[in-house]
Amino acid sequence: MQELKDRILSEGVVIGDSALKVDSFLNHQLDPAFTLRMGQELATRFADAGITKVLTVEASGIAVAMAVALPLGVPVVFAKKKKAITQDGETYSAEVFSFTRKESVQVTVTRRFLSAQDVILVVDDFLAHGEALKGLVDIVGQAGARLAGAGIVIEKYFQGGGATLRANGVRIESLAVIERMGPEGVRFA
Amino acid sequence: MQELKDRILSEGVVIGDSALKVDSFLNHQLDPAFTLRMGQELATRFADAGITKVLTVEASGIAVAMAVALPLGVPVVFAKKKKAITQDGETYSAEVFSFTRKESVQVTVTRRFLSAQDVILVVDDFLAHGEALKGLVDIVGQAGARLAGAGIVIEKYFQGGGATLRANGVRIESLAVIERMGPEGVRFA
Lengths: 189, 189
Prior knowledge:
The structure is a homodimer.
Chain A: H1 2-11, E1 13-15, E2 19-21, E3 29-30, H2 32-45, E4 53-57, H3 61-72, E5 76-79, E6 91-98, E7 103-110, E8 119-127, H4 131-142, E9 146-156, H5 161-167, E10 172-182, E11 185-188
Parallel strand pairs in A: 4-5, 4-8, 8-9, 9-10
Antiparallel strand pairs in A: 1-2, 6-7, 10-11
Helix pairs in contact in A: 2-3
């Protein structure tokens, strides 16, 4: 998606050799109209997949998931990173290691929000090592639901998560795929 | 907002004497079209306030904040609950005690996303004791920005946060105000 690539180039800041700060429009400040356009683009790519639910994980995935689910006319479910006291005892859960934070978190989804009849699109803001996505895919499996694929805003291809998941048969659509990055900037695939 | 009250009555579950589980449409599963209608209603109430930015806190506030900001045509900033490594050193921050989780968290906003020229609408899914809202209002003050008010989905009036904030001159618009709740159900104000 050219508009996204342009914003990454103009607003993104590369930190070290693998972190990309895009907090001006993706994970701290949001541009709602632009977010809707990104969601529309992902929804278009999965328009014929028969999706019944969009699954993401709090917090940065929520805005994009909303924007994808709106044109598809389906609900969003966001996995929680910490078990809330108002959450049902009956949950699906997966452990997700964050390379950014160097820690594991448990992500959970209340069982009654996913069923074996669901066709699920997993959505997230970033795909890097693929840990979060693998956790969400695992939860889809626990529910016995069908996975339509994953819709990603920015895929950092060089970190390998996308390759592994595609090799396992997961359809991944990313709005911007970064092949390489470093002090010299960002190069798209 | 009648549609919201109807959904609280049909889908909400009262736990103990003060917790309301509305995870089927507000803080775990989301109904995107309904969320947009709630956002539109809050945007309408603050239409003449000259708002330049909507401020919320991750995670459950994000969807509603997006829905409010969209018709207002302004960005959303969501405060983070844990300092991320990609976040600037320069942040505004406030300590927020969660009665639900019985713990304090630091909420932070990168300074460059709020300025003294901003007119800010704070948005959140719940207003109970008002701890999160007080933290966000404090951050608005740190930025030297003007506070237009707070847009809330569900206010649990009996927990007193709204009364305290209104007494301090904060304009609060809540889509549903719960006067009392318990085993007998929910009574709106």
